[in-house]
């Protein structure tokens, strides 16, 4: 008889209005303590944070909350989606995160986001510093230099899922364990048609805040940034340039990690994350 391990993660659905339209949204959580909202990357879903949800060193002090954005993972698009093109914008993204967090009645939460999530946490700190305890930007920068034609991600002659995974393969750090590398890529293979491209509309076109990022007040909302050094989408130089514009931002460059640190190599990543979480707990107690 084989052994069975039940993970300490609860998954549920909520029905709520987002951008004035009814949605059915999926989220998972584990742990107790300070709320920690985790935002997944473009074209993927909340499974990227599976290691954090299962880490007792984190969940004994933090209530980790991970939701799939609409159109992603187990969250459905809104009714009528078949007659529209999905495009993520700065305003819609900020509104989404605020709506979900308030619907869950999270008090003074931390928000951690990667890639597009790492971009939007900067906007959350700038626009809503009184709500967030602090932000953690993973692979976070104020803008991205476009280096490929995103329309290749949604063409009838190309398998969109395989194209998305092929694009992301080179963004994974070279030392990532194969099981984590390929699970990260599998999430991309399962993305809905045009969803990755729609997310990158925000990341590479609409979401440039390089002229506003200096407005972040880290005395109100502390800013932590963790960037892997093996990333040509959000380069260490791009994160350094962003951090230099935010007075009081704390940036750490993570050796050997790529664009998906929390899913491609969670064991190495948490070694960098734990000190940040320790600092958050210490500051919350003072």
Summarize this structure as a short list of keywords or feature phrases.
286 residues; single chain; 18% strand; Rossmann fold; alpha/beta; globular
What's the short version?
By secondary structure, the chain is an alpha/beta fold. It has 10 helices and 8 strands. α8 links the parallel β7 (223-228) and β8.
- Overall shape: it is globular
- Tell me the strand order in the biggest sheet: 1-2-4-3-5-6-7-8
As for the number of domains, it is 1
Task: Determine the mean pLDDT.
Answer: 95
The biggest beta sheet reads: 8 strands, mixed
- For the record, the CATH architecture stands as 3-Layer(aba) Sandwich
Q: What top-tier CATH class fits best? A: Alpha Beta
Number of extended strands: 8
Fraction of residues in helix: 25-40%
Radius of gyration computed on alpha carbons = 18 Å
Helix-strand sequence: EEEHHEHEHEHHHEHEHH
Strand content: 15-25%
Unreliable residue runs = none
Distance between the termini: 50 Å
What is the secondary structure topology, with strand pairs?
Elements: E1 10-18, E2 21-30, E3 34-39, H1 50-53, H2 56-59, E4 62-67, H3 90-103, E5 110-114, H4 116-127, E6 134-138, H5 160-169, H6 178-189, H7 195-206, E7 223-228, H8 236-245, E8 250-254, H9 261-264, H10 266-285
Helix pairs in contact: 3-4, 5-6
Summarize the structure in words.
The protein has 286 residues and is an alpha/beta fold. It has one domain (10-285): Rossmann fold (3-Layer(aba) Sandwich), CATH 3.40.50.1820. It is 36% helix and 18% strand. It contains 10 helices and 8 strands. The chain has helices at 50-53, 56-59, 90-103, 116-127, 160-169, 178-189, 195-206, 236-245, 261-264, 266-285; strands spanning 10-18, 21-30, 34-39, 62-67, 110-114, 134-138, 223-228, 250-254. It has an 8-stranded mixed β-sheet, with helices on both faces. Helix 4 (116-127) links the parallel strand 5 and strand 6 (134-138). The longest helix has 20 residues, at 266-285. The N and C termini lie far apart (50 Å). The mean pLDDT is 95.
């Amino acid at each position: 008889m084989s052994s069975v391990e039940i993970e300490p993660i609860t998954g549920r659905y909520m029905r709520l209005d987002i951008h004035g339209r009814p949605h059915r949204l999926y989220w998972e959580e584990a742990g107790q303590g300070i709320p920690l909202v985790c935002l997944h990357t473009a074209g993927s879903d909340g499974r990227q944070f599976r290691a954090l949800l299962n880490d007792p060193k984190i969940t004994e002090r933090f209530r980790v909350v991970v939701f799939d954005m609409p159109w992603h993972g187990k969250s459905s698009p809104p009714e009528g989606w078949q007659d529209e093109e999905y495009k993520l914008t700065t305003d819609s993204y900020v509104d989404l995160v605020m709506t979900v967090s308030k619907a869950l009645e999270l008090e003074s939460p931390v928000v951690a986001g990667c890639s597009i999530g790492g971009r939007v946490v900067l906007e959350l700190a700038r626009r809503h510093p009184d709500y967030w305890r602090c932000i953690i930007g993973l692979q976070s920068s104020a803008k991205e230099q476009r280096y490929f034609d995103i329309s290749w991600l949604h063409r009838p002659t190309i398998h969109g899922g395989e194209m998305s995974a092929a694009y992301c393969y080179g963004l994974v750090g070279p030392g990532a364990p194969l099981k984590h590398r390929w699970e990260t890529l599998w999430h991309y293979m399962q993305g809905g048609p045009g969803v990755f491209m729609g997310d990158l509309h925000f990341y590479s076109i609409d979401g440039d805040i390089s002229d506003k990022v200096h407005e972040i007040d880290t005395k109100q909302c502390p800013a932590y940034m963790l960037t892997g050094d093996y990333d040509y989408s959000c380069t260490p130089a791009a994160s350094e340039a962003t951090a230099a514009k935010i007075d009081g931002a704390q940036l750490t460059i993570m050796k050997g990690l790529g664009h998906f640190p929390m899913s491609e190599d969670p064991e190495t990543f948490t070694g960098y994350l734990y000190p940040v979480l320790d600092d958050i707990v210490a500051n919350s107690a003072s």
